[in-house]
């Protein structure tokens, strides 16, 4: 919503899609709202046709829709895992497949795929989301190479924690094995805290709008707090076990504080 609103303010004709827009179609502060479910091929087709009827072939596609289900690897069911992959990965590829013929016919275009710093490193209890964002990273690299001859640019947005409010309606895996309960509850509270105190999503929207004004878009836009961007660099240079210990300690903080309290 913040990105769509920033683009609209910056003068773009925006058609914004979400499932909830089925109940509130029409013009809004983030552009023209249309119902869209990226997991449904018919909905994707319908959305793209209506958007084209409104404003013609698109100059830019921003793939932002994503879901996150928190849970231990052992507890997340196949269906829960598939739902995350279908929305976050197949949703993006369906949208891209639909707009590419229009962009190629135009002779140019830009595709902005939302990844995450979780597309570059893992954190505990977000395995499905992390796997999906790693997939987005990989296929976006392939896409950029394939589309370069057609003057269609690809950009990966890699946000750190932002205050989008999504932790309020975040899904959790249906089951939680007792052996993971303490670690899960600590990690979930750290994740909520980090998001609630995260970066400003309006600023993220403006960074994307500013990048879209440039003659060439960067391939990667890593947006977020310094420590989170640093974590990605450390992930690439530190021995894996040391990095794992550092990240693991961060997500255990509350457990340790709790233990200290109960022993204190
Ligand atoms: N917030 C963060 O800290 C953070 C960090 C890194 C990356 N990101 C990425 O940034 C993007 C936005 O995240 P957010 O935090 O703003 O999440 P959010 O508040 O949950 O927003 C997700 C959006 O995706 C839409 N959506 C979900 N499933 C959909 C579907 N099947 N079809 C169409 N639209 C769908 C939702 O609308 P409906 O439910 O109405 O469909 C909603 O507008 C995501 O790609 C996320 O992975 C966020």
Secondary-structure map with pairings?
Layout: H1 2-9, E1 15-18, E2 26-28, E3 31-35, H2 41-55, E4 60-63, E5 69-70, H3 78-106, E6 109-114, H4 127-147, E7 152-159, E8 171-172, H5 181-196, H6 201-213, E9 220-223, H7 226-237, H8 240-250, H9 253-263
Parallel strand pairs: 1-3, 4-6, 5-8, 6-7, 7-9
Antiparallel strand pairs: 2-3
Helix pairs in contact: 1-6, 2-3, 3-4
NADP nicotinamide-adenine-dinucleotide phosphate binds at residues 17-20, 36-39, 64-67, 87, 91, 114, 116, 159, 161-162, 164, 166, 195, 198.
Tell me about this structure.
The chain has 264 residues and is α/β, with parallel strands linked by helices. The chain is built from nine helices and nine strands. The chain has helices at residues 2-9, 41-55, 78-106, 127-147, 181-196, 201-213, 226-237, 240-250, 253-263, and strands at residues 15-18, 26-28, 31-35, 60-63, 69-70, 109-114, 152-159, 171-172, 220-223. The chain has a four-stranded parallel sheet with strand order 4-6-7-9, with helices on both faces. Strands 1-3-2 form a three-stranded mixed sheet. A hairpin with a 2-residue loop joins β2 and β3 (31-35). α2 (41-55) packs parallel to α3. The longest helix has 29 residues, at 78-106. It is globular and about 55 Å long. The chain binds NADP nicotinamide-adenine-dinucleotide phosphate.
């Amino acid at each position: 919503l913040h990105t769509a609103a920033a683009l609209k303010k910056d003068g773009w004709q925006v058609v914004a899609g979400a499932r909830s827009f089925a109940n509130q179609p029409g013009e809004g502060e983030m552009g023209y709202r249309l119902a869209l479910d990226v997991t449904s091929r018919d909905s994707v087709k319908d959305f793209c046709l209506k958007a084209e009827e409104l404003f013609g072939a698109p100059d830019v596609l921003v793939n932002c829709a994503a879901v996150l289900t928190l849970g231990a690897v052992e507890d997340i069911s196949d269906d829960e895992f598939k739902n995350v992959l279908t929305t976050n990965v197949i949703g993006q590829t369906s949208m891209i497949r639909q707009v590419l013929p229009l962009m190629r016919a135009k002779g140019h275009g830009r595709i902005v795929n939302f990844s995450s710093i979780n597309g570059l490193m893992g954190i505990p209890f977000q395995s499905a989301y992390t796997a999906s964002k790693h997939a987005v990273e990989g296929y976006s690299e392939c896409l950029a190479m394939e589309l370069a001859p057609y003057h269609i640019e690809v950009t990966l947005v890699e946000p750190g924690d932002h205050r989008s409010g999504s932790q309020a309606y975040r899904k959790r895996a249906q089951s939680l094995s007792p052996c993971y309960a303490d670690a899960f509850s600590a990690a979930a509270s750290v994740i909520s805290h980090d998001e609630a105190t995260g970066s400003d999503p309006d600023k993220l929207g403006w960074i994307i709008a500013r990048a879209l004004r440039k003659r060439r878009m960067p391939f990667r836009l890593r947006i977020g707090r310094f420590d989170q961007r640093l974590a990605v660099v450390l992930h690439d240079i530190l021995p894996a076990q040391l990095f794992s210990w550092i990240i693991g300690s961060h997500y255990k903080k509350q457990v340790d504080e709790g233990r200290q309290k109960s022993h204190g």
